[in-house]
Specification:
The protein is an alpha/beta fold and about 290 residues long. Helices cover about 35% and strands about 25% of the residues. It contains seven helices and twelve strands. The strands form three sheets. It has a six-stranded mixed sheet. Strands 7-8-6-9 form a four-stranded mixed sheet. A two-stranded antiparallel ribbon has the order 4-5. Helix 7 links the parallel strand 10 and strand 11. It is elongated.
Amino acid sequence: MTFSGFRRSTKAMAAGRRHGKTSMCATRHDTTTLTMRSKRPADASERLIKPYLESLNLGGVEHQPLGNVTPDFSIDGRIAVEVRRLNQNFVDGIGDHQGVEQVHFSIYPWLHNELPKMGPSIEGESWWVSVHYRRPLPHSQAIRASIRNQLQAFMGRSARTSQSEWQIEAAPNFRLTLRLSSEDLGKFFVLASMSDYNQGGFVVAEALKNVELCSAEKWRKVIACPHKFEQWWLVLHDVMGLGLVNEDWVSVSEHLSPSCHVWNRIAVVGSKDPLRGHVLYTRQPV
């Protein structure tokens, strides 16, 4: 790029910012400018999937060919590849969704750290705490405050050991089960387990639902970024933990919604054998 061309590109970008036209994507005309941006490091899913893309022997694989924007990879400069974790999702009544692991990740570390702070065992008395929940749930801060208050109230009861198990409704759809330990655990409360009632289901139906959710979410980014690639692929990193085998993925492929056919290819890659991908859909030869 010449110096004068660089100045023109810079002025165009500045004008776009003044008029509210900046975007997280690039068109064909500002590709050169975007490639000058620093790239973010590849995340865990992208690091896993890159060797899979290279194993296809279709050409050079480049991470973030246009900078920190869509797509995540390009193959031979012709094929754009979007990468996403294939996780289980909860869909609420208005169509919004979130990964089922989000509640676990926000509550589990807090409980793990908070329960020991509530004090040591009392004259050898300790209680195991099991957590059970299903969505929709209140905000995690409200759940935490309720858990703390309910457990502090429980510690103040005079007849705690009159029964060996108690149920506490800490919040709507969020329940604690307290079980008296047969031995002194050192702390009054010790985390035993967490059960997510939105997780699981019939494995093929669950996988199919989440592939379609991921496809729709990623395609919304693609249609907002009209790059000039010959093909667009979606490659998913399976972190659902459902134990699907090849026959299950064939069934998912057979029942895939036509709404997923916007992609030229959809494939799923697992952590155990990342070089062996399951192609769920392909629209045209590469």
